[in-house]
């Protein structure tokens, strides 16, 4: 059965890999599963056909036969469960990898998204100058223990897993803020994720949509 995911017709990030369909593309590339992409406009995202797939009118969605999923974490988890390559065989290691998936989305990403909102949408507010340092400190409050836990390891728990895929994807959002550069081991961790061939294929495919140029390979 053909896998079909949805993505922005024109991504707000211009193809920098921050749109959440990149995470799903990356997961599918890691496990070697072919997929098709249906591009949707912002208008189409709020129309009944798309809302039937994603009740909140967002992307990505995932369709395979009679299965339709939304929410990036759930989609990546489904891919990792169904195909080898993103979750360890050992039961305990598998549980730890899943824990890191939840940690990336539930613990680390929220303050990073708050920072993105503060930087992109609140710059003209009278309280912006006072609030921004507080938001940045909340991000550091997550990165400090993450940096300690990672230490000098390549990945969070042994081999690369879906937990790393999501954590790297989340941390990528910090690049423009400069905060990631304060943590050399986390910056190197993100760079290792970006260097993976599967990530490069996913990034190039998403970039091609936004530049109109075919992705290499």
TrEMBL record:
Q: Which UniProt keywords apply?
A: Transferase
Which GO-annotated molecular functions does the record name? transferase activity
Lineage: superkingdom: Bacteria
Q: Which Gene3D superfamilies match?
A: 1.20.1050.10, Glutaredoxin (3.40.30.10)
Question: Which is an annotated Pfam family here?
Answer: GST_N
> In this protein, which residues make up the domain named GST N-terminal?
8-87
Database matches in InterPro entries: Glutathione-S-Trfase_C_sf (IPR036282), Glutathione_S-Trfase (IPR040079), Glutathione_S-Trfase_N (IPR004045), Thioredoxin-like_sf (IPR036249)
Matching SUPFAM superfamilies: GST C-terminal domain-like, Thioredoxin-like
Q: What is this protein called?
A: Glutathione S-transferase
């Amino acid at each position: 059965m053909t896998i079909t995911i949805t993505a922005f017709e024109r991504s707000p990030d211009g193809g920098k890999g921050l749109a959440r369909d990149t995470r799903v593309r990356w997961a599918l590339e890691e496990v070697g599963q072919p997929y098709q992409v249906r591009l949707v406009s912002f208008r189409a995202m709020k129309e009944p056909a798309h809302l039937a797939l994603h009740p909140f009118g967002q992307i990505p969605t995932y369709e395979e036969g009679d299965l339709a999923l939304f929410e990036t974490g759930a989609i990546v988890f489904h891919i990792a469960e169904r195909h080898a390559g993103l979750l360890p065989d050992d039961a305990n290691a598998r549980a730890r990898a899943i824990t890191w998936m939840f940690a990336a989305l539930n613990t680390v990403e929220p303050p990073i998204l708050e920072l993105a909102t503060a930087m992109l949408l609140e710059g003209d507010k009278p309280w912006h100058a006072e609030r921004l340092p507080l938001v940045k400190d909340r991000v550091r409050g997550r990165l400090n223990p993450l940096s300690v836990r990672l230490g000098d390891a390549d990945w969070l728990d042994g081999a690369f897993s879906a937990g790393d895929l999501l954590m790297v994807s989340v941390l990528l959002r910090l690049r423009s803020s400069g905060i990631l550069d304060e943590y050399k081991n986390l910056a190197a961790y993100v760079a290792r994720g970006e260097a993976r061939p599967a990530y490069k294929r996913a990034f190039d495919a998403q970039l091609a949509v936004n530049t109109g140029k075919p992705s290499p390979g």
